[in-house]
């Protein structure tokens, strides 16, 4: 049992670091998404979305996380019915020039 607690703390620390790195990569990659790209192209840039919802007109909205554990601002990529990007909404800080803080 004594070994389990430090391992749990280490795992929590490593997962927190991964979240910050993923958040930074999402911010950096979001700026590369352009209107008209296919879902396959977006997946190649952004990776798999953390969420997917149906949008009006038969399209989809993919979401990606950005921010810290206590302050998340999703990045949203909207696709039209033909599967092409119709808009990309990056978090206000998603310039890719700074890592998110508070994580």
Molecular structure report:
It is a single chain. It contains 2 helices and 4 strands. The protein has helices spanning 4-30, 39-46, and strands at residues 51-54, 60-64, 75-79, 85-89. It is globular and about 35 Å long. The two termini are 28 Å apart.
For the structure shown, list the relevant keywords.
single chain, 103 residues, alpha+beta, Beta-lactamase Inhibitory Protein, Chain:B, domain 1, four-stranded antiparallel beta sheet, globular, BamE_dom, signal
Whole-number tally of structural domains:
1
Fraction of helical residues: 25-40%
Helical segment tally? 2
Largest pleated sheet: 4 strands, antiparallel
- Class from helix and strand fractions: alpha+beta
* Radius of gyration from the alpha-carbon trace, in angstroms: 16 Å
Per DSSP, what share of the residues sits in E-state strands of 2 or more residues?
15-25%
Distance between the termini: 28 Å
- Identify the strand order in the major beta sheet: 1-2-3-4
Count all strands and give the number.
Answer: 4
Roughly what is the average pLDDT, rounded to an integer? 75
Low-confidence stretches: 4-18
Principal-axes geometry comes out as globular
N-to-C SSE series?
HHEEEE
CATH architecture: 2-Layer Sandwich
Keywords: Lipoprotein, Membrane, Signal
Protein name: Outer membrane protein assembly factor BamE (Lipoprotein component of BamABCDE complex)
Pfam family, one: BamE
InterPro entries: BamE-like, BamE_dom
